[in-house]
Amino acid sequence: MKIFFDTEFTGLHQNTTLISIGCITETGQTFYAEFGDFDDSQVDSWVRDNVIKHLKFHGKEKKEWCNNETLEAGTDNAKTECYGNKKFVTDCLKEWFKQFDKVEMWSDCLAYDWVLFNELFGHAFNIPKNVYYIPFDICTLFKVSGVDPDVNREEFTGCVVGAKKHNALWDALIIKNCYDILTSPNRRI
């Protein structure tokens, strides 16, 4: 199962902390979580204006919770949303991964995303066994497909530009849409 994911975090530096994570499978199942224990002292005005304002639960919930919901009866489409500290969110994510036999993780400019993903589990050797340890980057797929990797992803996919940019689940959906377009058998380079 291909899972497209994105994270939002407190800054582009070594000690950054996770704010949110969003995942969407190739069949449409989603996982979205917000971390209640990110280091607010690291949040600058850019992160506050461009990330925090797109959070769904920040400032509304103080207790940990996780909700699983089937969106359409008889389909694989389901969403999981949760809020809590790093350990709680990691436990929810582990549980969510259990439904898949094999997982291939895809992200966009994934240097920080992959390190932070691995850190959730302690280190790379502790990621769930069904998750392939090598991540894949949509930037590389753009490059080998003859598309400038710096292309505006929302424009490329035809989505509303800037609608929810820097929301981890929205960004994961954009990554999935890019992948779908780039790997379409009907695509012309």
What does this structure look like?
- This protein is α/β, with parallel strands linked by helices and 189 residues long.
- It has a single domain, classed as Ribonuclease H-like superfamily/Ribonuclease H (Nucleotidyltransferase, domain 5, 2-Layer Sandwich).
- It is built from 6 helices and 7 strands; from the N terminus they run βββαββαβαβααα.
- The protein has helices at 45-50, 86-97, 111-120, 138-144, 153-157, 168-182, and strands at residues 2-9, 18-25, 30-35, 65-70, 78-84, 104-107, 136-137.
- A 7-stranded mixed beta sheet has the order 4-5-3-2-1-6-7.
- The mean pLDDT is 91.
How much β-strand is present in the residues? 15-25%
List unreliable stretches of 5+ residues.
none
What is the tally of helical segments? 6
Alpha carbon gyration radius: 16 Å
Portion of residues in helices? 25-40%
Order of helices and strands: EEEHEEHEHEHHH
Major beta sheet, specifics? Answer: 7 strands, mixed
How does CATH name the architecture?
A: 2-Layer Sandwich
CATH superfamily: Ribonuclease H-like superfamily/Ribonuclease H
Identify the notable features of this structure and list them briefly.
29% helix; 189 residues; seven-stranded mixed β-sheet; Nucleotidyltransferase, domain 5; alpha/beta; 7 strands; globular
Brief sketch in words of this structure:
The protein is of the alpha/beta class. It has a single domain (2-182), classed as Nucleotidyltransferase, domain 5.
Write the SSE topology.
Layout: E1 2-9, E2 18-25, E3 30-35, H1 45-50, E4 65-70, E5 78-84, H2 86-97, E6 104-107, H3 111-120, E7 136-137, H4 138-144, H5 153-157, H6 168-182
